[in-house]
Structures are given as C-alpha cells and as structure tokens.
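Exercise: predict the fold of this chain.
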Amino acid sequence: MNARPKKSFGQHFLHDRLCIERIVAAIAPRDEDFLVEIGPGEGALTLPLLAAAGKLTAIELDTDLIPALRARAATVGELHIVHADVLKVDFTAMAHSHGVPRLRLAGNLPYYISSPILFHCVEHAAAIEDMHFMLQKEVVDRMAAAPGSKVYGRLSVMLQLACRVEPLFDVPPESFRPPPKVDSAVVRLQPLPPEELHDADPAQLYAVVKAAFAQRRKTLSNALKQVMDSDAIRRADVDPRARAETLSPADFVRLAKVVPTAQ
C-alpha cells in the first residue's frame, strides 16, 4: 500500500522505473562502497540500489515510512535505517565509525530544503566520494551555472569551489507521486581533491559571496562596502565596478583573502 505524501516533509515519491534505472546506472554501486541514501521515502530508489550494492544506509525522518521500508528491504539486502534529520547527521563521524575513508551519497532531496542539505553535505566533503541527487531543475541549473549566467549566484560559487558539478538528465513531473509543479533533474557532485581546494578562510569567503550577491545588480564597491573598500577589491585584482555575477569562483577566493587586511 502506497503511503500518503506529506506536504510538511515536501514528499514527492519517485515511481518512474526508467528514471530509477538511469540513476542507479549513474551511481554504479560497487561492493566496497558505503552507500547512504537521503530520504528513501517508499524505497523506489532504495530497493534497486540495495539490490545492486547488497547493503545500504538510509536516512529517513518520517517514522511512518520506516516499517514498510524495512519490510520491503528484508529479502533484498542489508538495509540500515537511521531515523534522523539529515541536517543533523555528521557524515564525517559516520564514515569514521564504520571504518571507511569516504561515503557515497544519493537521494531524491526535499526541494524546500535542498540548498541547506547541499551546504551541509559540502561541510563534510572530505568524507564523501560523490553525491547523486534529484533536485528541482532550477536548482541544478544554478549549481552548474557559469559566470555571466542569469542564474549564477551564491549557490554556484560555493558548490563549485568544493565540487565538480555535473548535471546528468532531466526528470518530468509525472515521474513522481504527486507530480511536483516543477521539472526535476539529477546531478552528480564530486568533491574536489585537496590540491584543488581553495585556501581562503571559509567564514571570510562566505561573507564576501553573501554580500556580493545580496544585491547582485550593484557594483562590487557598493555591494561589498560593509566588508571591504575599493582599494582592497583592487588588491584582489578585481574591478570594483564589476558585478558579482561576472566574477569567477577564483575571483571570490582572492577577495576573501584580502578581507582581514581591509578591516
């Protein structure tokens, strides 16, 4: 019996068999993987992943879904269910406690809190090999946007400084129950290796990016005036007359590095 989707949890249950097969193929589970699914719901993706991998950890907040999910998985493979809010799950500690170097994450994320989940995962990027997520297509477009794009913004910069972002394929509303009012897409995120990570202070970087895009039509000298002055912007080899949407992620790193000397 199908569960009734709860609006409060932003539940849209995936049922498109072809789409599910494409996601599993994109993930390509291996025997040695420690797979973690965020928001398994009714198990549409859980069971095929479990069949392919043999074992899986699933993080589910809705207690009403857990008994049926556990029953369906009993003959498929080894499913461990963590009843928790994913925003409170320490993925680094999870990897360490199970003696694995890195986790592989997957899931059909609740669209209303997708950005907080993405940022939370990025905080644990050193303990994550890759992530395959279903998201609102508009969010995936923003994640992968290049400088100059109308949808390029804070999410684009912060994610691209931590991960390689690869949109895989789009998913129509009718692939879900109930159908969402937006198109969806599947994206692959691969955390960058240590040698490719920036060396700016994370708090300074966040402050600069947030301020720059808060009023994206303003020039940097105006948008960042509470963070740094025009001379500091020039020291970062950035034009104070430029707008945030024209800067590369590397430009923001250079800006973040001059913040302490500008205060």
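Check your answer against the key: The beta strands are 13-14, 35-38, 55-60, 78-83, 103-108, 128-136, 163-171, 176-177, 184-191.
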